[in-house]
Amino acid sequence: MPVSLLTAEQVRVAERSTGELLANGTLMRRASHGVAQVVVGRLAATGGCYGRTVGIVVGAGDNGGDALFAGAELARRGIRVTAVLLAPDKAHPKALLAFGSAGGRLGTELPRGLDVVIDGVVGIGGRGPLRPTAAKVFAGVAPSTVVVAVDLPSGVDADTGVVHDPAVRADITVTFGVRRRAHLLAGPQCGRIVVVDIGLPADHEGDPDVAEEYAPGEIRLQALTDADIAAAWPVPGAHDDKYTQGVVGVIAGSHRYPGAAILSTGAAVAATSGMVRYVGSAHAEVVAHRPEVVVVPELSEAGRVQAWVIGPGAGTDDAALERLRTVLATDLPVLVDADALTVLAAHPDLVIGRDAPTLLTPHAGEFARLTGEPVGADRLAAVADLAKRWGATVLLKGRITLVAQADGTVYGNDAGSSWAATAGAGDVLSGIAGSLLAAGLPPIWAGAAAARVHAHAARNAASGAPIGASDLLAALRPTIRELLAP
Ligand SMILES: NC(=O)C1=CN([C@@H]2O[C@H](COP(=O)(O)OP(=O)(O)OC[C@H]3O[C@@H](n4cnc5c(N)ncnc54)[C@H](OP(=O)(O)O)[C@@H]3O)[C@@H](O)[C@H]2O)[C@@H](O)CC1
Ligand SMILES: [K+]
Q1: Is residue 14 classed as helix, strand or coil in its secondary structure?
Q2: In the chain, which end has fewer C-beta atoms inside a 10 angstrom radius, N or C?
């Protein structure tokens, strides 16, 4: 099931729903135990706990309380723990007492050469960047020290994932019960995320019954898992033929830029079985690479399709506008990418009010062309807003790809690496998503599934070294095979 990512307020609602467990501090003890376990696990894997050194940076709220209770547990295991209190008067009193009783020490700065630093400055109550005192403490932390963030890396906004400057960069983030939005939106800043079960009703990932109440149009952020995508991926049934699985038509490339056409159609061929049609002047090059693609130079000659992909390398002239107008006038799902987005920016009316599904796949620059302003720091709000205003599904590309539906549902995917940031990778994505649209997947699923498979293929192709889009394309089939393997 898709994993939900909640706002700070939704997390607080979930915590409050536990009543006594919140009031008597049980939730905090469970949370801090989870943090301590993660640190112990890390130390145990690298030589054991006894005599190792841990620093704790403690803020004014319960996040600092978590860190101090965790520190107490670590101190009891023979670990030398030093805490720096950023706001000594406000430090969680019970946690501070427990920390002192367990043998934890207080300092005005962190000792050098620590094995682990625990960031307990702020969690979901944090606002803005790390304040100067905290920033100074973290500036002295050696690169070899493992940084474990409690709940969130401090300086990262819980709801938008905006990484303020300065902010903590964590190797591991330990969170409680349910994921916060920032864990996806600022994934690279969080490092590995460990979700500790503290007994919230929403503790079963993907089943956040506490947060099921969404107002109409409210943003609901989720992440698809590999299992979700495998279950939805079109696989031919016993009675399928090449037409019943959905035919995708690709309008892309040109004499001058045949590569986009080759990459997009190649990806469409690899992503699903069935049939791919191609319309455009790069037809000879397309057939040379993929003889199974049925090609024609003109749109008027194209046979029937179940979805269109239009735009990669296809130009922005009057003829391009005419082709865009024609496909958007059909009642078929249409994926609009690249050059076609530039054309669309001047003619939004072609999409707004369209009844059939439309999937727009801009990168940040194309997004700015569509809306007339930069994406901005809050990418989630920006993409959800465009989807709502245009009544379309919008896939905003990036390390974290966000796919927003007009009703506020957003699927996000962290690519896990940035190897796919290479010329032509977007053309491959358009082919994958287009073929999924033709197979009947709703645009948000087609976009999110394509983004995830694309990211896995990039990782598999790269294997630690740079790649080109052709390498990504070549890795597509083995990646899908791996995904679909029982
Ligand atoms: N409730 C529970 O049972 C459970 C809660 N849990 C834990 O509690 C955390 C939430 O605790 P919280 O609500 O106390 O807020 P929290 O994140 O500690 O920070 C608030 C304080 O920080 C300050 N401050 C703000 N911005 C700042 C900045 N940029 N730089 C520096 N300081 C800044 C600001 O104080 P100010 O200095 O402005 O007076 C404010 O008072 C949650 O993330 C989880 O870890 C878990 O134990 C599970 C059970
Ligand atoms: K923190």
Answers
A1: helix
A2: C
